[in-house]
Amino acid sequence: MDTTSSLAPKIGPLGLSPKKVGDDIAKATQDWKGLRITCKLTIQNRQATVSVVPSASALVIRALKEPPRDRKKVKNIKHSGNIPLDEIVNIARIMRERSMARELSGTVKEILGTCQSVGCTVEG
Q1: Which pLDDT does position 122 carry in this prediction?
Q2: Cα(111)–Cα(99) distance, integer angstroms
Q3: What average pLDDT does range 83-109 have in this prediction?
Q4: Residue 76 binned pLDDT confidence (cut-offs 50, 70, 90)
Q5: Which residues 6+ apart lie within 8 Å of 5 measured at CB?
Q6: Whole-angstrom Cα distance, residue 89 to residue 87?
Q7: From residue 64, how far is each of 44, 50, 74, 84 by CA, in Å?
């Protein structure tokens, strides 16, 4: 999908170039190729900064170290990989501030549930 066409009505009135912001987003999301992630666009003094906010499932799929795929061509993919538990704890630390859980152990359980829904195993 072309990002500039969906960005133009939103950032045009702010006096920013949609093409430049689209290029910034493309540059920030290069290492997440083939995964759907959320980008946070912060605009201050007519200067746009892009920050990547990955979801739990995107972090889990990235931890599987699968080759990038084209979402338009490859559908209904099964992520049958294995992730070590310490990798799950690292993902939980990244997701900690956005988690609903009170403690890190609850966040780890949330990530384990995400692994289940993605279809991968944790330490066998």
Answers
A1: 77
A2: 10
A3: 82
A4: low
A5: none
A6: 5
A7: 36, 25, 17, 10
> Which residues are 52's β-sheet partners?
39
Per the structure block, which two tokens stand in for 65? 């170290």
Q: Is 23 exposed, middle or buried (0-12, 13-18, 19+ CB in 10 A)?
A: middle
DSSP type of residue 42: E
Selected residue with higher pLDDT from 32 and 1? 32
CA end-to-end span of the chain? 37
The two three-digit tokens of residue 87, written as one number: 């990798």
Contact criterion met (CB below 8 Å) for 61 and 79: yes
Could you tell me which residues come within 8 angstroms of residue 22 by beta carbon, excluding any fewer than 6 positions away?
2, 3, 4, 7
pTM confidence score: 0.66
Cα distances from 59 to residues 12, 35, 55, 79, 114, in angstroms, run: 32, 9, 6, 13, 10
